[in-house]
């Protein structure tokens, strides 16, 4: 005849189980792991109500009530072993444990993102997705933000994609992670970051907020962040979201063109270059302010900035904009004259 056993968690929750006669602690652990929401056997410590030490697996079940303590000790040891299959098993166990493991479980999983074994690192990525879907989304984002700079490029890309699959606009730390990606040296990583940002902006409710957030980054203390923001605005315009920026400006928020125009005078040449490319995309056709701002960049001390400004003006001249055509022609003639007299220099 089956015996009825009550298991009480530290949170005061009770699990009622029916066990076969002569069952052991190992059988009880197995039954708990199968009861919903279960706790993996590897994460269980079974105690008598009057004791502090966990019971061994071979201990017979003789009482009506036991205490359950969730512990990561055994799993964390698995994560540090030299056997990659054991480390992978530990990661998968924490994934099954879910939100019951709290921040320690998320941190333990994230520590395997840099694992030398590709299978273990990939298991950690899948585990983070699972943990985020089980209600730990912002904690997972925070763990990714902390670990991502130290990960290899392929893992960085995968983590950005994790963010894209689980995050919601407004999640704490989301923008910081995406801007980490936008500043990445690897093109496929910052492309992934931009795609996530663009997807978040696709919603009519999110788009003005996304654009506003990008514009705000144009004033960041770090030049690489400002450059990433200018680049992102270029992508926004190329994706056909120029109207969203104009709508945002009409709502009283900072206008993108003015914000980018300020970056044309930035101390960092890379920011000035990105801003020059963004200006041509963001402004409307026949916008004399835009052409005038770009024309001023033709005297920049950085050859890359001059090149970006000239290409932006030339692109608009090709569309038949008279002001752009006049500026491009004047600059070309001036440079050609300098080249003829100096013997070598040519327009960008």
TrEMBL record:
**Molecular function terms, GO-annotated:** oxidoreductase activity
What range(s) does the Ubiquitin-like domain occupy? 3-63
- Give one Pfam family, short name only: HEAT_2
Q: Which Gene3D superfamilies match?
A: Leucine-rich Repeat Variant (1.25.10.10)
Name the UniProt record assigns to this protein: Ubiquitin-like domain-containing protein
Lineage, top ranks: Eukaryota, Sar, Alveolata, Dinophyceae, Gonyaulacales
